[in-house]
Amino acid sequence: MSSTVSTSRGIHSPARLARHESPDSGASGSFSLIEPDINDSETELLSVFWNQDNGCFSAGTSNGFRIYNCEPFKETFRRDLKSGGFKIVEMLFRCNILVLVGSWDNSQYPPHKVMIWDDHQSRCIGEFSFRSEVRAVKLRRDRIVVVLEHKIYAYNFMDLKLLHQIETVANPRGLCCLSHHPNTSVLACPGLQRGQVRIEHFGLNVTKLINAHDSHIACFTLTMDGLLLATASNKGTLIRIFNTMDGTHLQEVRRGVDRAEIYSIALSPNVQWLAASSDKGTVHIFSLRVRVLGEDLSAHNSAQGPAMFQQNSSSSLDPLISPNTGANSSSSLSFMRGVLPKYFSSEWSFAQFHLPEDTQFITAFGSQNSVIIVGMDGSFYKCSFDPVNGGEMVQQEYVRFLKTESRPR
């Protein structure tokens, strides 16, 4: 069957998206959509995911899924399904194509199946089936990436042909990240060793292994162009920023001294700020002083991409680190860094916002020095921070979009 994919940039050519058998194949089934009368009090929130530009987020529920716009906040649409809920609902920017993975109680689509759903046609236009549970799915306009616990499959979006298979260390969180700029094609995933991140520059056919931490990786993210990587380990005290071309460690910021679980890391579009949420109930904002030559890739045409990559692969730190503006707090005892513990000379957060500690939150940057925060308790926050003085952020908006008990992602 053919499908016309409508995106924010126009209409793609019709794509042959038929049922597909993956390397780990399984049986296929039909997908039915209904519009039952379901009360929010009966609906459980299973997951939340940002779209690629963080302008929307999807909510997987025990009865289907919902899509929300962030600025201004509003529910865009919802789909309630008789077969059950979805633990993964991945958007492709703002187009009609979604990728869905069922929850354990979904009678038709269990967690080892991936559906490509065309909401315009209200039907499934492609399907993958695996022998083990799907941990995550990541999308860009030319790729579908399926993450299993020990393996990652990358497919061409237009014809669903398998392009790459990557072995990873045990990855129960489904950690994986894609760049979303059209001139770059970068994937980040766990390597084969503890604390290691593997970077695939598909456009350059280059693989880079970054030994980011001594302990297991808990969270990471890429800039839109994939040139910078931010990572946190399961200790949750430090966040490190790396150049993905040569693996250079560019900057390190400190969330705190006590161990914590990092739920999400976000980088602002201009790479000036980093936000992190954790189980300590605080969203921290850090000032970044890293930059990449030609980081504004939108000013260049696609033909300049590879050449610019080669130019930026220098191992010199000077072009990549700006002078320290002093925005992040540092200890006045930093001159004794050779004697005192390392955290005395670490860069601490510039701004903060406090949240309930018993809820999992993910965060992203909004417009005009604002941060968007979405909680697994069905809460939505928009907060602003002072880019000069920092300090406690100011809550601008709060919405309870789903009043229900939630379960961990």
UniProtKB/TrEMBL annotation:
The lineage of its organism: Eukaryota, Viridiplantae, Streptophyta, Embryophyta, Tracheophyta. It holds the Pfam family PROPPIN. This is Autophagy-related protein 18c-like. GO terms for cellular component: phagophore assembly site membrane. Keywords: Repeat, WD repeat. Gene3D superfamilies: YVTN repeat-like/Quinoprotein amine dehydrogenase. Its main location: membrane. Residues 1-10 have a biased composition (Polar residues). It comes from Pyrus ussuriensis x Pyrus communis. The keyword Ubl conjugation does not apply.
